[in-house]
Design a protein that fits this description.
By secondary structure, the chain is an alpha+beta fold. It has a domain of 160 residues: 3-Layer(bba) Sandwich (FAD/NAD(P)-binding domain). It contains 11 helices and 23 strands. The strands form 5 sheets. Strands 1, 2, 9, 10, 11, 12, 22 and 23 form an 8-stranded mixed β-sheet that branches. The protein has a 4-stranded mixed β-sheet with strand order 6-7-5-15. A hairpin with a 2-residue loop joins strand 10 and strand 11. Helix 1 packs across helix 11.
């Protein structure tokens, strides 16, 4: 039986950085990382927008606010040092009416509280940055927001893990546990400590260890629509003022690492955890469990789920998606938006007691295991400092 001091379940950007942070802090201990897919980045970490956020969306007391600004800096440095692609295009947040100006002020205040570099602009100044932008009176500009290729970043971090001696088992899925014995598709592993960073299945793994009692993951499908416009047709990301009552940022224009334009994403309720396309990865028990939960949300209209579901499903219709985006930018032609990108699934945690989506990062643990239950956007941006913090929390749990 294979033995290890630490077993990390999940090889996404969080699992990789947890393993790296632990191994660097405890170089004499053995670390094994399980990744159920044959390659890295098959799920959320390789399918996200690639945007490195600046950190002004989040309340000052949140973990997201605490780690996004520093995560942006560290990941920008990481990509630069390793020669990975990065597009330092910045981000404009535009308004559509007078009512949104108040929310714009909230974003500005949150950014200032977190030490985020931001510029408040007039409509004319916004047009100097991006002539096609549509905004009502004012806008915000975030110069440190950028884009990377998430697949490149994840693969680079996986190589970092191998280079410092972390044993990576790809194509190896977690099956269950009995005491310290962890069952996998490649045999049993005796683990001194387990850290669960399983993304879409984090709640399921946690339940095996007696955690996630009051939480369940609800999957939301994110789709981007790509433009045929040439590189240079847009200078910066264009985002709307978000609805701060939910964790989704609305349809926006994103520039990729190589300068191409995409609009999205959707936040469509999925029917099973890896429900990317059609009946791909179909899972009947998950279909029943998740559909029943979503029906309950629809009936009770928890956190405005009914409106959210209808609105998001309508974005499957390509002209609808383009029309929504066109409120932010002039010269948007439906004919140039014809190609859907690779779908992603957001592993959004739902609080069963309070009947709401969990807005911040969330984790639980004890002397034997630790579980990262909610690591949604901007977890990719936050990953380096956030995972250092998680190892601090592991040390606290183990010392109790």
């Amino acid at each position: 039986m294979k033995k290890t001091d630490l077993l990390v379940i999940g090889g996404g950007v969080i699992g990789l950085n947890i393993a790296l942070a632990f191994q660097r802090r405890y170089p004499q201990q053995k670390v094994v990382l399980l990744e159920k897919e044959a390659q890295f980045g098959a799920h959320a970490s390789g399918r996200n927008s690639g945007v490195l956020h600046a950190g002004f969306y989040y309340t000052a007391d949140s973990l997201k606010a605490r780690f996004t600004r520093e995560g942006n800096r560290l990941l920008t440095e990481y990509c630069t040092e390793r020669g990975l692609r990065i597009n330092r295009c910045g981000k404009l947040v535009v308004t559509q009416n007078e009512a949104e100006l108040e929310t714009l002020d909230v974003l500005l205040q949150r950014g200032k509280a977190g030490g985020v570099v931001m510029h408040e602009l007039t409509e004319r100044e916004a047009h100097d940055i991006e002539p096609r932008a549509k905004t009502f009176q004012r806008a915000l500009f975030s110069p440190t927001t950028s884009s990377v290729d998430p697949q490149e970043v994840v693969e680079s971090m996986a190589n970092d893990a191998k280079d410092i001696g972390i044993e990576i088992l790809t194509g190896t899925a977690y099956l269950g546990r009995k005491g310290q014995e962890i069952r996998t598709t490649q045999g049993k592993i005796l683990a001194g400590y387990v850290i669960n960073a399983a993304g879409l299945y984090a709640d399921k793994v946690a339940q095996d260890f007696g955690f996630s009692e009051h939480y369940r993951i609800i999957p939301f499908k994110g789709l981007y629509l790509y433009s045929d416009e040439p590189v240079g047709a847009l200078r910066t990301h264009i985002y709307p003022v978000p609805d701060l009552r939910n964790p989704f940022l609305g349809v926006h224009f994103t520039l990729t690492a190589d300068g191409h334009i995409k609009v999205g994403p959707t936040a469509i309720p999925a029917f099973w955890r890896e429900h990317y396309k059609g009946f791909e990865n179909f899972n009947a028990p998950e279909l029943f469990e998740i559909t029943m939960r979503e029906l309950g949300l629809m009936l009770n209209n928890d956190f405005g789920f009914r409106k959210l579901a209808v609105t998001e499903l309508s974005k499957y219709y390509r002209p609808r998606m383009v029309k929504l985006a066109s409120s932010l930018l002039s010269g948007v032609d439906n004919k140039t938006y014809r190609r859907w990108g690779r779908p992603g699934i957001r592993a959004q945690l739902f609080d069963l007691r309070n009947r709401r989506l969990e807005q911040d990062f969330c984790f639980e643990g004890d002397q034997n295991s630790f579980h990262v239950l909610n690591a949604v956007s901007p977890a990719f941006t936050c990953s380096i400092p956030f995972c250092e913090y998680l190892i601090d929390q592991v040390e606290i749990c183990r010392s109790r």
